[in-house]
Amino acid sequence: MGVALAWSAAAVASLFKVYFATLRVRLVLPDGSVTRLSDYVTGAEVFALCERDALILAGAIASRCPTVLVASGRDGDRATAALEAMGCRVIRRPSQRGGAAALFQIICELQESDTALGITVDGPLGPAGLAKSGAVVCALRTERPLRVLGAAARRSLVFPNTWSGIYLPLPFTTVIIVMAHMPLPQAKGVADIAMLTERLTATLATVRAKAIHIVEARP
């Protein structure tokens, strides 16, 4: 990583932390209770999220020093620099076809770590909201609980011409993050993994809908 890129990433990370502190974020837990984000103690968990929520959820979990998977290329270099500046441990995806190798590396490292793992499950190119199997496989292989996250902001800027509709909440707005626990029975083969991945897609839609409903209903 170049010196200029490292300095730039550190500056962006610092500004993002200041910006994130202006947001009124509330976390809805699987039991329905509502808490402040700072009161949730992150353990050895796998967090599944959609690309559209990536910016707000990156701010929510980055301070917990999660492991994250980042693609190769120039954009991946910038993302890696920013995430590492915020305290994340980054594993790089070696190529567009290197997802399986990167997933295997993540599983191996998680077995020797107690940090959380965050995976954008509908990337790298969508369709938006349609989960791939990576988070399910990681949770199964490492025997970690799978937490499904969805978020909504009262006021936000949606970036145009993006496949996911990724957005950035405006400063000082209310943000709701909904978390669901997805039980994972023992999977015996590819068909079981596919079924659980379909269930993950449905759960992602549910938590997103709930987050939107709550944020619109709050005064």
Question: What string gives the helices and strands in order?
Answer: HEEEHEHEHEHEEEEH
Q: Overall pLDDT, averaged?
A: 83
Strand % is: 15-25%
The structure class reads alpha/beta
- Described by the principal axes of the CA atoms, the overall outline is globular
Number of helices: 6
Describe the structure.
The chain is an alpha/beta fold. The chain has helices at 3-21, 54-62, 74-85, 99-110, 134-142, 190-217, and strands at 24-28, 34-36, 46-49, 67-70, 89-92, 117-120, 146-153, 156-158, 167-169, 174-182. It has an eight-stranded mixed β-sheet with strand order 2-1-10-7-3-6-4-5, sandwiched between helices. Strands 8-9 form a two-stranded antiparallel ribbon. β1 and β2 form a beta hairpin. The longest helix is centred in the last third of the chain and has 28 residues, at 190-217. The chain starts with a helix and ends with a helix.
Blueprint of the fold:
Elements: H1 3-21, E1 24-28, E2 34-36, E3 46-49, H2 54-62, E4 67-70, H3 74-85, E5 89-92, H4 99-110, E6 117-120, H5 134-142, E7 146-153, E8 156-158, E9 167-169, E10 174-182, H6 190-217
Parallel strand pairs: 1-10, 3-6, 3-7, 4-5, 4-6
Antiparallel strand pairs: 1-2, 7-10, 8-9
Helix pairs in contact: 1-3, 4-5
